[in-house]
Amino acid sequence: MRKMNGVLILFFSFFSFSYASVPSKGWIFSPMAGINQPALEVVYDKVFNSPFVGTSDITTDLPEDVEGRNTYPSERFFFENPMKAPDFGFESGIELRRNFGLKNDFIIGISTWEVSSEAVTVATFPLQGRRNNRAQYDRRAKFSYTQFYLGLRRYLFERKKRSNLYANFTVHEMFDIDYEETNVFSFLTGAPAGFRRIIRYQSQATGLMMLQFGGGAEFRFADRFSIGLEGGYAFTLVSGTLKGVKLINDLNNGDRLSGIPSPISDNSAGVTRVLESDGRSVSEVKLRLDGWRALVKLNIAF
Fold it and tell me: Which domains, from first to last, does the chain contain?
């Protein structure tokens, strides 16, 4: 028990007494980096697992001079190439704080976050009127956003201490939210052997609002410089959906596809929808970014 009491006394002494008094500066600039794990259930559970479905005209068993697409039989194809949900993504940004009082800071900051995933399989892709074209199917996705935030920081002890603890309260606006998926088919056999077909989908969102609570510790190693270790958890105040799908591809009429396969598409209102695992029904891509974040900050007083 005496040993435990001694450890506690040493811990609180470390944060309660400065090694030397340091002057308080008016502004603090902080480049930062860390990891973030927003929920993104719909993106990870549905979009990352949506199938690649389409219909292709088959001319293999018909005379080559048959004219008119309507005379060709069609064949539906259905590929599954699910991508793994990442554990977390990397975040980086900058923060500016203004002192007021002995224990308070006003916070304003901006940061970006990104996560990606990839999956590879081999599929039989009916293309150019032929059924048995074997292709390596590479599927890659990237989800990213930029956030702007402001809020307050409250230190446990006066700012002049070399070591300190603090709590943060911030409001975040998430904008420039982007989802991009690239499907690459590298043909190994059949009529298109040696060629590739690339289909890319892009969709965006903006205006999500978050509320974050967090805390951290700050260790000053020079008059104007300190290191901060910080964690927090954000809650969604205003959710949203991905909107608008931009399609980029190098398909051509000779590929004889009846439309372009679309794991994601948008409806008449511009809301992005994802194709469900049955390959027929669709649902909206709703976004909630609740989750934790952990950061390291280099604080520069000026």
Answer: 2-301 (2.40.160.20)
